[in-house]
Amino acid sequence: MITKVKYIICAICVICGSLSCSDMLDTDSSRQAFEPSLDAKTDSIFYAYGIMQAMQQLADQYVFTGEMRGDLVSTTYYTDNNLRQLANFSATTTNKYDSAYVYYRVINNCNYYIAHRDTTLVTGATNVVMHEYAAVKAFRAWAYLQLVRLYGKVPFFTEPLTQISQIDNGNYEEVDMNGLVSRLAPDLEQYTGYNVPDYGNFSAGSTNIGSTKIVITGRLFIPVDVILGDLYLENGNYSQAATHYITYLTRVATETETDYAAPFSFGRRAGAGGGGYGMTNQMPDDYASNSLGGYYNWSSIFSNVSLPEVITYIPMAVNRLKGTTTSVPLAFGYNYYATPTNAAEEGVRVREIQIAPSPAYLTLSDSTDYYYYGKNGSVTDALTASNAYVNSTRMGDMRASSFMEQGVGEDSTKTWISKYNQGNIILYRQSTIWLRLAEAFNRLGMTDAAFAILKEGLNDLTITDAAYINESTRQALQTTYPLLSSAYISKFSTADNYFGIHTHGAGITRDYFSGTGARYVAGLSLYQPDTIIGLKMREIERTYQVQVGTTRQDSINAMEDLICDEYALELAFEGCRWYDLMRLARHKNEAALYGSNFGGQWLARKLAYKQPVVNLEDKNNWYLPFK
Fold first, then answer.
1. Angle 262-281-499 (CA atoms, 0-180°, nearest 5)?
2. What is the DSSP code (8-state) at residue 74?
3. CATH number listed for the domain at residues 2-191
4. Which residues contact 504 (CB under 8 A, 6 or more apart)?
5. Do residues 108 and 86 touch, judged by C-beta distance below 8 A?
6. Which residues, 6 or more positions from 69, have their beta carbon under 8 angstroms from its beta carbon?
7. Is residue 524 within 8 Å of residue 513, measured between CB atoms?
8. Do the beta carbons of residue 328 and residue 73 sit within 8 Å?
């Protein structure tokens, strides 16, 4: 134990005082970390930026360990050997991306701040410290959560370690997920409902095309209720998880719009032989043009972190002189730091792609039904609620089309993924929170509410008009989980364009009509819970050779697999896939619906195409060796 911790801490004794004078997160403060003087209102910005700089240093590892071990990516001829080892589960402590140190560096920075910050500072009657103090504790909890996800059990300490003697004299316990939650959650609970600090926006320097990168400081922090929701979701406390996600959505988030839809003119991914993704309209003849236009293009989320969708992100430096850079865009096929020949592009596309979408991901995306308003007969596109109807076609999910580009000719086997071509690592989005709330609701038996989050969003019309929402769920959404109570329902209005998450790529999944005579039309869309959950039940029965019945638990398991699919379609390649799979597998084991290790079998089958060198039915093989 001591050897492990000593290795981790030896390199962090300087904590925050190592910022470069030219770093994008530098400040004018001249204080060093071992001048324990956090007793002025302005000093803390320096320490907070020091923590954020430590976050930059773990960004690449976060993405690569979270995606390479998941089921959405494949390696290529050009894949770096460190990434290849992560993908086939052969990584040892020599792997470049197996480093507990990068997370403990964040933790030790946070521990130092928490131990020394004067929390009594006020301006008038307002405490000017506590929101930042709570945000630093959230950073620490997030870093510990990643460590336990990576290693299963890790050394835990909350005192700042600045000398080797502290390690030699310490007796640090190891905690697993349940232990971590029991040690961190009670303390964080006192800060529920807190907003994150905001120091204003600032320039991070010029990009490779001469534009200026603006850092939005209010989105560099993790809201306390978001990390509390994650902690409780991991250890199966679904009620508390739902409560904190709802607290974030109702009391913390200033904007929670979900009005993101992929452009309806995008064509589906071409089959073998090339053609690629493109702007060719392949909609059926009865497609009515006035559908869901006029809202944000879903893919714009990744090029514009100022949109309400982004909650927390890590902005990477625009060049090495400005701080920590990232190799993530390059692995997906884009050199963010090269100067493009086309001024409209951000970064340069390279041929040596290291990470490609997996066959499983492409199959899931391509086999998704797309729902659309049909024309009124064959004469006019004019639609009203009285004559509107929704049809479907196997067009595939449009989200993939909007951030992937498939090559042609000699590059026909290559696919470029553009989610990272702005050099930003997104940790949390509004859609992340809604999907995790759906996961919690589903495990609480509120499968109807979980499906609503995918179908049309939980909003004012859902609670009053949706026939598939049962009465007990209606009551719960207004009392126990008061997302749609009288105090908050105005925040979730269809007038503000609330969509279901599946709508982002699958078209008209909702049952309320937004055209002439807008109103709820029961059964308007073909995307209905009985049909979709029933199809997933049959798929599970065929795939895993289990007897799927019609019980509530069978429905919960099937709905959970639908949520797993939606995680893939919405959050692919963003760094969280492996951890989502592990959590779902663990909860399936705990439910023991189809056997005590069904979760392990479920996970192993999803990753069988990688030919892993270990047996993934054994949960002991889910973790990296501690380094």
1. 25
2. E
3. 1.25.40
4. 258, 260, 261, 262, 298, 399, 431, 569, 570
5. no
6. 86, 87, 89, 578, 607
7. yes
8. no
Specify the 3-state DSSP secondary structure of 298. Answer: helix
| CA-CA-CA-CA torsion sign (360, 363, 367, 370) | positive
Element (H, E) at 150: helix 130-151
Looking up tokens 């071509």 gives: 421
Q: What is the pTM of this model?
A: 0.92
Residue 323: both structure tokens together = 């701080």
Whether residue 45 has pLDDT greater than 80? no
For 379-392, b/e burial (b = at least 16 CB within 10 A) is: eeeebebeebbbbb
Contact between residue 316 and residue 532 where contact means Cβ atoms under 8 Å apart: no
Q: Domain-by-domain residue ranges, the chain?
A: 2-191, 254-428+439-527
Q: Is 290 left (phi over 0), alpha (psi -120 to 50) or beta?
A: beta
Checking 321-325 for CB contacts under 8 A at 24+ apart, the result is 321/22, 322/22, 322/23, 322/24, 322/204, 322/205, 323/20, 323/22, 323/23, 323/24, 323/25, 323/53, 323/56, 324/53, 324/56, 324/57, 324/59, 325/423
Instruction: List, in sequence order, every residue forming a beta bridge with 335; answer none if it has no partner.
Output: 348
Closest CA to 526 of 508, 503, 501: 508
Residues 380-437 have pLDDT tens digits of 556 777 778 888 988 889 888 888 888 888 888 899 999 998 899 999 999 999 999 9
Q: What is the DSSP letter of 149?
A: H
Distance separating alpha carbons of residues 599 and 597, to the nearest angstrom: 5
Q: At what angle do helices 471-478 and 447-455 cross, to 10 degrees?
A: 80
**Is residue 253 scored above 60 in pLDDT?**
yes
> Encoding tokens for residue 90?
């052969």
Please report where in the chains the tokens 């001469």 appear, as a residue.
210
301-340, pLDDT tens digit by residue? 888 888 889 999 999 998 888 889 999 999 999 998 887 6
Residue 519, Cβ neighbours under 10 Å: how many?
Answer: 15
Question: Which residue type does 73 have?
Answer: V
pLDDT averaged over every residue in the chain? 85
Q: Bridge-partner residues for 75, per DSSP?
A: 355
202 pLDDT above the threshold of 90 = no
Question: What's the length of the chain?
Answer: 627
The string of pLDDT tens digits covering residues 12-34 is 444 444 444 457 665 444 334 44
